[in-house]
Design brief:
alpha+beta; 23 helices; 54% helix; 546 residues; Cytochrome p450; binds protoporphyrin IX containing FE
Amino acid sequence: MILTIISGTTTIYLLYKLLSFIYYYVLALRTGFPLLLSPIFAKSILWQILAPAVLPSIRGKLPLWIVIRLELVVNGWEFRWRHGEAQRFVGGDTFVVVCPDGLYMWCSDPVLGSVILQRRKDFIQGDVVKQFIGIFGSNVLQVWQRQRRIIAPHLSEGIMATVWKESCLQARDMIAYLVEHPGGETLGGLRSVAINVLGSAAYGYSQSWSPGIAYGMTEEGNWGSGRIAYFKTIALVADQFIAAVLIPSWIKKLPFMPKWLRVIDRQMANVPRYVKEIFDAELQKKTTEIPEGKDKHNNNVLDMLLQYSQKKTTNGLYLTEDEMSGNLWVFTAAGFDTTANTMGYAVILLAAYPEYQEWMREELCGLDADISPEEYEKCFALCPRVLAVMFETLRLFTPVLHSTRTVNGIQQLAGRKGTHILSSPMDVFVCAQIMHCDTTLWGPDAAEFNPKRWFDKQTNLLIKPPKDTFLPWSGGPRVCPGMKMSQVEFVATIATLFRQSRCEVLTLTGKEEEGRKRLMDMMDDSISKLTLQVRNGQEVKLRWVV
Ligand code: HEM
């Protein structure tokens, strides 16, 4: 009897999925884009967790027409196939993958991509993003307009001097430590810099640099409370993002699950408590540290979230408790993981290409004896080569591989070969990483690290790449509000690190070429967690020499 029920239900389910597949196929045909049919249930949690572990071992053993149907439904495929392999196979820079559980349009055409990003109401944030980003409450990505108006002004020019100063001070402490401690702590150290800069600029708390807040944090002991425990938890969730979000809490808790998964579960459950402690401390600070009669605003992101939570303002802006928690998470994760990983890749690239360290140092040596933490306005403008290193790093290792949207109703897109009809339900991905490696946009040397390409040969000024071809911060009305902050933080940190010191790869054999190849292989083996990063940051072994 039970068997009959199970097999009956399974048959009905499979039949339903077969009909869905046919329905999706018909919708996909209407788009007029090339199609790729895949039998995989791309949204399945089991697939998204197991496939990255299994695929590497079978990749070379199966024909391309099978591999591509498996690869293109695994998170992060665009980095592995960033040189246009999939586009060549499918026959277009925009194509649609049809699966039994959904339709996925991948676009690496700059013109179409730009139109999609501009049309905010036609291409909206979808449920995928809600599931992934909304784990600690709703946020700016979800109730967009109201929250964006609250948050974006707090990432304006007004905080850049603080970002610059804190980044310089953090980087100074970090370099003093690393010169004495060659090995695998550089990338973890940069994560600490990024967390502390965010803590200072956005939350008004200064904390001195210490090595590696982000790695080796799977110990079961007490993680403390409030802001420190919150930052450590966010760093851990960012580092193990897919497992943290996709595996249900009751499975993470099972006694036979690995220790790190149980720690993630415990820490995620603690987040509401940490958030409450953070906001209580901010309230306390306002009441005790600021004298009566003075303006009680601290002018940081925490204070701003508090203000909007306490009352509905005259212009109708407010935040619920859930939104405060959600925004704090998006803010912390978006602001820290992206910038930390970009700085990490830049350092590895500069270690692999020491000639560009010299090129950058030439510029830095023209500045005062040191990069002054107090002189943001003067110094930032004088470091275009460092900014070019950032752009080139973001081009080759784009932290957010694509911008995700969902088709709202039925939409028309005018393409080079006519009009395309896109119908809901369909997820749309604008693939920045693939555009960034396109030789037709960046020239035959698109795969090479060459920060000099960012300068005009005649004027020797930084160039703007052709419109919509460079999208690390996305584009359109939802463009990253932290763009300038990340640039200021990057330039201050990298300039401070490289002004006085050189970074060398620690080789296993003593041969420089071997060390360089190891770095390149590690970067090639990057994976997309919350954002793109090298698989194991502690394996990047470097030596800093003054
Ligand atoms: C190199 C560093 C960074 C990169 C590459 C980056 C990239 C991005 C991208 C691609 C988006 C998605 C936009 C879309 O959906 O189209 C985004 C959104 C966002 N980023 Fe950044 N980001 C960086 C740094 C920062 C920093 C430092 C902060 C703040 C402290 C920040 C805060 C945000 C927020 C709040 C959003 C959501 C905006 C919205 O939907 O309106 N980001 N970022």
